[in-house]
Amino acid sequence: MVSNWLGTSVEEMWLVVVSTIAILVAAITVIRIVGLRSLSKMSSFDFVVTVALGSTVATVAATSTSLWAGALAFITLLSAQWLVARLRRHARFSAIVDNEPRLLMVGSNFVDSNLRTTRVTHDDVFAKLREANVTDLSQVLAVVLETTGDTSVLHGAGPLDDALLPGVAGQPESSTARRHEAS
After folding, report:
1. How far is residue 183's CA from residue 169's CA, in Å, rounded to a whole number?
2. Helix (H, G, I), strand (E, B) or coil at 110
3. What is the pTM of this model?
4. Which of 152, 143, 148, 150 is nearest to 170 (CA)?
C-alpha cells in the first residue's frame, strides 16, 4: 500500500521531486543569464510570459513532460520575450502588443468614461486608494490603470508633473486644470 499511495508509485514520487528540483535549477539558471527583465511584468506580454514560465515549471514538476522539453519551452518563452521587447521600441509594434495606461481619477474626480471602458468601479479605485495609504481625497493627484493591469496612485502635496502622464489615455480636456487645483 505504501508503494502505491493514491495511485502513485514511490518511483513516480521521486521522479516528481527530482524533476521539480531540476526544472527550478534550470529556470534560475536561464533567468540569471537572461536577467531580471524576464520577470518584470512591464507590459501585458511580460505578464503572460511570467505566468507561462510558472506554468512550465509546474507542468514539468507534476507531469511526465521531459526536463528537456521544459527547458526548451522556458528558453523559447524568454527568447520570444526578448524579441518582443526589442520590437516594442517601434511605435507601430508597441501599439499592437501593449495596452494603453488609462487615467481613472484626476485629483478627487473620477474619470467615469475611463472607468466604464476599463470596467473598473469606484469601489475598486477606493480599495487602491486605501492600499496606497490615502487618508483624504484631497491628497490624490491622479490614479492610473497601468499597461500591466496594476493601479498607480499618485498622491502627495505638490502639483502633478505632466511629464508623469505621457501616453496615458483618456485624459479629460480639463485634466491639467484639475491637476493643478489638487495642489
Report:
1. 22
2. strand
3. 0.62
4. 143
What is the grid cell recorded at 102?
Answer: 488609462
Report yes or no: 103 and 170 within 8 Å, Cβ to Cβ. yes
- Look up residue 168 and give its amino acid: V
Measured distance between the N- and C-terminal CA atoms of the chain, rounded to whole angstroms: 71
Of 105, 102, 115, nearest to 146 by C-alpha is 102
Tens digit of pLDDT for each residue in 146-182? 887 889 999 987 788 878 887 787 776 544 434 334 4
Domains of the chain (ranges, CATH numbers): 4-95 (no CATH), 102-182 (3.30.240.20)
Segment of 61-75, 117-131, 156-170 carrying the highest mean pLDDT: 117-131
Q: Report the alpha-carbon distance of residue 50 to residue 143 in Å, rounded.
A: 25
Closest CA to 148 of 97, 77, 83: 97
Cell numbers given for 71:
527547458
**pLDDT single digits (tens) 78-110:** 888 888 888 888 888 877 777 788 999 998 999
Q: Is 68 helix (H, G, I), strand (E, B) or coil?
A: helix
